[in-house]
Specification:
The chain is an alpha/beta fold. It is 33% helix and 22% strand.
């Protein structure tokens, strides 16, 4: 508990973490470039970023873009924010909020690209509405994402991937849907830039194939 309290205090003091109680938390919508990054570069968002390995990895690889990792768990964000600070990555930031409140933090068409990496699969039928690829969430992503922006999704979970694929192919309107059920043996492999989350490493080492798709709304 002491360590968690200490980390929460450090998050509040860090300029690359935006969370409740901070001055810009309620006013950052439409102002990310001006107030967080001090540039006019593209915004790329990772949804449910966990400890931020992917967000930091993207920021490291693409210094000409801005990257925002979103998660509700402050202790997880502490890890990613520390990595970014230690590496001097001023193009990486983190937002603490639930995904359902996304519209409070991003203007329409403000984001150029979104990543959803290894979310909780919520396998029980009664939890379908909590899956981060359920239509109510897709509506939020579509609002924030630019018309030509790509949405990219990675998971090891076959059930969640098949659910999402069926939804996009039959019910939810998207364009240019491309996918693979075995990323590491696919021509799409280079699109993940060799970046892996903790869970991707764990499950791929257990022999699970990594599923990946991308599309435009």
């Amino acid at each position: 508990m002491r360590q968690k309290t200490k980390r929460f205090a450090e998050n509040f003091a860090r300029p690359n973490v935006l969370e409740p109680g901070k001055e810009m938390y309620e006013r950052i919508k439409g102002r990310w470039r001006e107030h967080m990054f001090n540039n006019s570069n593209d915004l790329v968002v990772e949804l449910g970023c966990g400890k931020g390995e992917y967000t930091v990895g993207l920021g490291r690889r693409f210094p000409g873009s801005n990257f925002i990792g979103i998660d509700i768990k402050g202790e997880r964000l502490w890890v990613g924010s520390k990595m970014a600070i230690d590496e001097g990555l001023e193009n990486v930031a983190f937002l603490r909020t639930q995904m359902l409140f996304l519209e409070k933090f991003f203007e329409e068409n403000e984001v150029s690209e979104m990543w959803l990496t290894f979310p909780d699969p919520r396998p029980k039928a009664r939890d379908a509405k909590r899956r981060l690829t359920f239509p109510r969430y897709l509506d939020l992503y579509r609002h924030a994402l630019q018309p030509e922006g790509w949405f990219k999704f990675k998971t090891d979970n076959t059930g969640l991937f098949d659910y999402t694929l069926e939804l996009l192919q039959s019910k939810y309107p998207v364009r240019n849907l491309t996918y693979t059920k075995d990323l590491y043996r696919s021509p799409m492999l280079e699109e993940h830039y060799g970046l892996k989350t903790k869970y991707e490493t764990i499950f791929s080492e257990k022999g699970e194939t990594i599923k990946y798709m991308k599309f435009q709304f």
